[in-house]
Amino acid sequence: MITKSKPNRAKLLISCREKPGIISTVTNFLLEHKANIVHFDQHTTDPRAGMFFMRIEFELEEFDSSIKKLEEDLHEIAREHALDWQLSNNEKRKRMAIFVSKTDHCLNELLWRWKSNEISVDIPMVISNHTILKDIVESYGIPFYHIPMSHETKEDAEQKALELMKGKVDLIVLARYMQILSPNFISKYPNQIINIHHSFLPAFVGANPYVRAFNRGVKLIGATAHYVTNDLDEGPIIEQDVQRINQRYTAEDLKTAGRHVERRVLAEAVSWHVEDKVLVHGNKTIVFA
Amino acid sequence: MITKSKPNRAKLLISCREKPGIISTVTNFLLEHKANIVHFDQHTTDPRAGMFFMRIEFELEEFDSSIKKLEEDLHEIAREHALDWQLSNNEKRKRMAIFVSKTDHCLNELLWRWKSNEISVDIPMVISNHTILKDIVESYGIPFYHIPMSHETKEDAEQKALELMKGKVDLIVLARYMQILSPNFISKYPNQIINIHHSFLPAFVGANPYVRAFNRGVKLIGATAHYVTNDLDEGPIIEQDVQRINQRYTAEDLKTAGRHVERRVLAEAVSWHVEDKVLVHGNKTIVFA
Amino acid sequence: MITKSKPNRAKLLISCREKPGIISTVTNFLLEHKANIVHFDQHTTDPRAGMFFMRIEFELEEFDSSIKKLEEDLHEIAREHALDWQLSNNEKRKRMAIFVSKTDHCLNELLWRWKSNEISVDIPMVISNHTILKDIVESYGIPFYHIPMSHETKEDAEQKALELMKGKVDLIVLARYMQILSPNFISKYPNQIINIHHSFLPAFVGANPYVRAFNRGVKLIGATAHYVTNDLDEGPIIEQDVQRINQRYTAEDLKTAGRHVERRVLAEAVSWHVEDKVLVHGNKTIVFA
Amino acid sequence: MITKSKPNRAKLLISCREKPGIISTVTNFLLEHKANIVHFDQHTTDPRAGMFFMRIEFELEEFDSSIKKLEEDLHEIAREHALDWQLSNNEKRKRMAIFVSKTDHCLNELLWRWKSNEISVDIPMVISNHTILKDIVESYGIPFYHIPMSHETKEDAEQKALELMKGKVDLIVLARYMQILSPNFISKYPNQIINIHHSFLPAFVGANPYVRAFNRGVKLIGATAHYVTNDLDEGPIIEQDVQRINQRYTAEDLKTAGRHVERRVLAEAVSWHVEDKVLVHGNKTIVFA
C-alpha cells in the first residue's frame, strides 16, 4: 500500500514484552488524546510470553499542539509499562543520505520515486566514492559529495562522511555502494542503514552473486534489501524478490536483468522504512506493509 | 498465513460505522474477559465517516465457560455501540457443503487440504448433479448426494438440496458446479456461497472464458473466487490469481493450465472464509489474510 | 532474456502458410550464406494447415557485404516459397518516437533503459500535447516537440506529427499519451504503434480503469501493452502483468501503484518489438521472448 | 505449455559440439523422412565454439513403420556428425517409479496429474520405507512396495529396490523420500532421478530448511526440483519457485505453506522431463518449457 504523505498524521511504533492489556492501554491513551486511528497493526511472537509489536497510524486535530502534548505524555505511559516506542509524523520528514558507487539504476529509482512523492523524505546529500553519478544527482538539485576511498584511506573517508551527515541524516541507503562499512561507522546508525544485495540471500552471500548464480544454474535470480550489521550480508532482511530466467541468459544478462529486481526491492524497503512500517527484532524484521 | 486449528482460540469479527474509541471499547471489553489477543486486524474505509472493520483472534483460559460469558456480554456492548459482530471459535468447526458437477480438480484440492487439516471444517456432504465424482467423495468417507438437475426440475432440485442441508451447513462451496443458482436459493446463504470463476474477473464474464481468452490473445489467464449473488459473476471478489501463458497454448491447453490456478485460488478463498478472515462490505471484501 | 546489441548479428522474421520443409529451406539458405544461427524460434498455429512463424538470429563474417548479398537473395527464395519476411540487423538501429502527455513514469523508464542500452534504438524525437515533460526529455539530448491538441485541431495536429516523423521513425510508443489517434494516423504505422493500457485487458476497457478496479474490488491490478488499431483497447496484446493489492489501497493508491506495472510492461513490450521478437497474426501476437 | 499426449508424435533431442549446418542437417533429414515439425527449440552455449542443444517435436504419417525407419537412419547421421541423440514417442510412455516416505502432498499431486493425464507416464510402482501411504497408492491401482531402511540395511534395501525396478523403470521421482541414495544406486539412473528439495537452492542446503528460513527471517520460501547426483542438493536444477511469507508464519507454518510450492515445482519438473523438455549439460539444465 502506498501511504501518501498526509498532513495531520502520526505513526507510533511500540515494542515490549507481551503482557495482558497492552492494546487497551495504548488505545485508551490515544483516545484520551483524541487521536483518530487510521491503521492499526500488531504482531506477537508468542501471545503468552513473547515480544509484542504494534504500529498505529492516527490523525489529530490541531496537529502541532496535540502531537506535542501526546508525545510528552507518552514518556510517562511508556515508563510505566516498559514500552519501547518511536513517534514520527508526516509534518517532519525523515532525512535520507544515499551512498553510491558507479551504477545508477538504484539511485535513479530512488530519485524518481522521491520526485514523484512516493518516497516522502528529504535528501540532504548523495555521497559517492566516484564522480560518475554527480550530474544525475545534481540535476535533481541534491548536493553530491565525492569522498574517494581506498583500503588505506577508509577510516578517514568514513570519518569525513560521518561529519558531513552529522545532525542531518536519519537514514542511509546504500544504493549499490561497493564498499564495506566499518563497525564504527555502522554503530552510528543502528538499523538505519539499508543495503541492497544482488541475490536472494542467504544464497550467494558475498561477491559476484550473478556469476555464481549462472554457474549454479538457478532458475530464479533475486535481490535482498537488509539492514546493515557488522556481519556482511547477514543483517535483518526487509524485502526480497525474484525474477525468472532461463538458459538464454548469460552471466552478463543476469546482471542486467537483476538490476530491475534490485531497484524494485530496494525502493520498496526504503518506502517501508520511511513510512515506519519496519520494526527490527533480533536479526529479523516485522514489516507491516 | 496458515492458522492451524488451535484450541482455546476464538475469532471476533466486528463491523460498524466509524466513531472514536471503538478499538478501545472492544479491547477493554476483551481485557475484562481475560482474553489474550493473538492477532488484531482492522480496516476503515474513511477514518472520519466511513465503515470500520475489525478481526480479533484471541485465547481464553477455561475456554468453554469463559467464551460463553463473553458471548453473552457481547450482546450488550454491541447494542450499546451499534456493532455488527460474529464470534466463532475453533472448538466449533464450520460445516461446509461442496457442490460439484463433473470436473474433479477443485474438489480434490479441497478434500486434500481438508484431510491434511489445512482447511479445518466438517464436510457433512457433497452434492452433485452428476454421479461421476461419487467414488472420490465416498473414499474420503463423506456422504455424496446425487441431485439431477434440468431446466424444468431446477426448482425441485434446489429444494431438495436445501432440505438436505437444513441445519447442517454453514458454507457452500461451488467447486466448478455448472448450474446457476436461483435467487431464492442464494437468499438462504447470504455471503456463504463461494464460487470459482475461471477468468480474472471482470474479464470474460460469462461462459467459455478460456476460449475467449485464447481468441483475445491475452498473456495471462486467471481465476476468481467470489461470493455468489444474484448478479452472475458480479459478487464480492475474495481472491484472484493469474498464470502466464504463451502462443504455444491452445484453447484446450488454457483450460488444462487454468485448473491449477482455479484450485489454488478457490482453496485460498475457502481457507480465509473458514478462518473468519473475510468481511463483506457492499460488493467488496475486506480480507485479513 | 536481454539481447544486448551485438555487432555482426541480424534477425530474420518469417511468416507463411504451413507447408513441409520450410525450416529446411530457410536453414539451408542461411547455411549457404555462411550464417551462424544463434537463436532459432518457431511457432505454428497448426502443423498441418496453419500459419508458420519463425525468428532466426544469426551472425555473419564480413557483415556488411554478406548481409547485403543475403538480403538480395532472400527476395528470390521468398517469392518462390511465398514467405513474408523482415530482415533487420544490429548495425542499423530502429528509430523510435515517444508520444507523451503529462505523466512521466513510462517516459522515464524508456529513457533510462535506452540510456543504459537495454533498449537499443535511436530516439529522434518525443512529441507531446503538453510542455510539462520538455525539460526531462531535453536533459537526455532528445528533441522535444510540443503539438497542442484539441478536438477541433486533432486532424491538423496529427498531420503535423506525421510530417515531423516522416522518414525518421520506425516505431511510435504511446507512453501514457492521452489522445485517441485517428484511423488515418494509425494506418501510416501498422503494428508499429505500441500503447500501454492501465488495466489487464480486456477488463476495464476504456476510461478510468483504476477507479473501476477499485469499485469492483479486484485483488489484482494490471497493465497491458498492445499494438494500436482502430478498435480502441482491442489491438494485439504484446505483454501484460499484474500486481497484488488489498483493501488498504484507495483508488488513488491504485493509480500510484499501477504506475510500476505500467512502466515495466511497456518497457518489456518495447524491448521485444525492438529486438524483433514480436510477430502479429490477426489480432494476436507471437512473442519469442 | 501442456503437451497432451498426442498420437503420431515423436520427440528428438540432440546435443553436440557447435558446428555450421547442424540445424540444416537435421531438418533435411526429418524432411526426407516426411516428418512434420510441430515444435522446434534450440540452444547454444556459444555459437562459435560451444555446445549445441536441440529439441524437435514432429508428426509422422503411418507412424509405426515410419518412426522405425527414421530411428534406424538416425544412427548413421548421428555417427557421421557426432551427435548425441534421444528419440522418444508418445506411443511408448515412460515408466516412472515414485519413492516416498511419510508425507503425501507430492505423491498426491503426481498421482492426480497422472490420473488426469497431465503427466503421461506409466507408474509401475511406488516404493516406500514406510507403510503409511500404502492405501492412497493402491486406491489408484498402483502396486506399493514397502522396503524398510535403516543405516545398516541400506545396501540391501537399495538392492531390493533395484531388482524390483529392473527393466521396468525409466525415471525415479523422489517425492519427499527422506533417505540419501548411494552413489551405486544413483549410477544406475543417471539424470533419471528427480528430487524435490524444500528450499530455493543453494540457500539452505541440507537439513531443516524451513526452520533455518524461519531463523534467518527470509521473506520468500521456495522449493527446487533437481536431478540427483552424488553431491547432495548439488545436482542440476530443473525448476524452482518461491512463495511470499511474513512474520505471522511460524516455522511450522512455513512447512505447511511450503508444501504447495514443493508439489507444484516437482510436478512441473516431472512433466518437463516426461515430455523430453530437459537436457542436462554439466551441472545445469536446458529446459525447453
Structural notes for this entry:
The structure is a homotetramer of 289-residue chains. Chain A contains eight helices and 13 strands. Chain A has 289 residues and is an alpha/beta fold. In chain A, the strands form three sheets. Chain A has a seven-stranded mixed sheet with strand order 7-6-5-8-9-10-11. In chain A, strands 2-3-1-4 form a four-stranded antiparallel sheet, with helices on one face. A two-stranded antiparallel sheet of chain A has the order 12-13. The longest helix of chain A has 24 residues. At the A-B interface, helix 1 and strand 2 of A face helix 1 and strand 2 of B.
Strand order of the largest sheet of chain A: 7-6-5-8-9-10-11
CATH class of the largest domain in chain A: Alpha Beta
Write the H/E string of chain A, N to C. Answer: EHEEHEEHEHEHEHEHEEHEE
Q: Please identify which CATH superfamily of the largest domain in chain A we are dealing with.
A: Formyl transferase, N-terminal domain
Classification by helices and strands of chain A: alpha/beta
Uncertain runs of chain A are none
**Into which percent range does the helicity of residues of chain A fall?**
25-40%
Oligomeric nature of the chains: homotetramer
Strand content of chain A: 25-35%
